[in-house]
Amino acid sequence: MFGFGLSYVLQMIVLKVRLHCKACEKAVRKALWKIKGVKCVEMDVITSKITVLGYVDSKVVIKAIRKTGRRAEVWPSSSRRADSVRSEPNVATWVYQF
C-alpha cells in the first residue's frame, strides 16, 4: 500500500470456534482485538460462530485463536444453499410479470 508491509482489503472472516464458557469467550475476544487491523468482532456462543471484520488475513486470525487453546475452522460455506435459493423464482419477479 505505501511501499512497506502487506496491504489487506477489508474482509469478513467467519469462523467456527467452540466456546463453552465465558472465560473462553473472553480469551478469544481479547486475542482477536490484539490483532492489528481488526475493526469488529462478533461472537455467537450458541452457534459457535465468530465473525471478524477488518484488514486482516484469515490465517492470522485462526493462528491467534489457536494460541488461546481453541480449535478454529472456517465457517462452512453456504454456496449450496445459495444455489438452491437462486434456482427458485423470486416472488417479487412474479408480481412484476403480470
Automatic annotation (TrEMBL):
<feature type="domain" description="HMA">
    <location>
        <begin position="10"/>
        <end position="73"/>
    </location>
</feature>
<dbReference type="Pfam" id="PF00403">
    <property type="entry name" value="HMA"/>
</dbReference>
<protein>
    <recommendedName>
        <fullName>HMA domain-containing protein</fullName>
    </recommendedName>
</protein>
<dbReference type="InterPro" id="IPR036163">
    <property type="entry name" value="HMA_dom_sf"/>
</dbReference>
<dbReference type="InterPro" id="IPR006121">
    <property type="entry name" value="HMA_dom"/>
</dbReference>
<keyword id="KW-0479">Metal-binding</keyword>
<dbReference type="GO" id="GO:0046872">
    <property type="term" value="F:metal ion binding"/>
</dbReference>
